[in-house]
Amino acid sequence: MLYQIKSAKTLEEIERGLQESAARHQFGVIAIHDLQETLKKKGVDLAMECRIYEVCNPRQAKKVLDADGAISTALPCRISVYGSPKGYMLATMRPTEMMKAFANPEIEPVAREVEEVLLQMMQDAATG
User: Fold this and answer.
1) Is the pTM value of this prediction over 0.85?
2) Max alpha carbon distance in the chain (Å)?
3) For the segment 56-71, what is each residue's pLDDT rounded down to a tens digit?
4) C or N terminus of the chain, fewer CB within 10 Å?
């Protein structure tokens, strides 16, 4: 269900790679959550850096939302980058596995397409 890949790049290089790859694949990075910073503002120290990138292809999102509005609970797709300058991990929940919860065969091909792009974006950002 979880896909992970290691990277020796800096956090800034990974972020730039995600932004560039998303654009090439007609996805947008619609939000970035810096969990380390957010927790710090709440008085909680998190030793590792952790950013969550919300990514979306609006046409693909519309297809699955038209099939079942409850899928909105699983959107947008998220790519997490966590670790330290010594090394980062990129991780995502596989859309094909998450969509099984909705038991709608109509959304499976879209989930497969989205998953292929997400994994490619992560590969591009981690190693490209």
Assistant:
1) yes
2) 45
3) 999 999 999 999 999 9
4) N
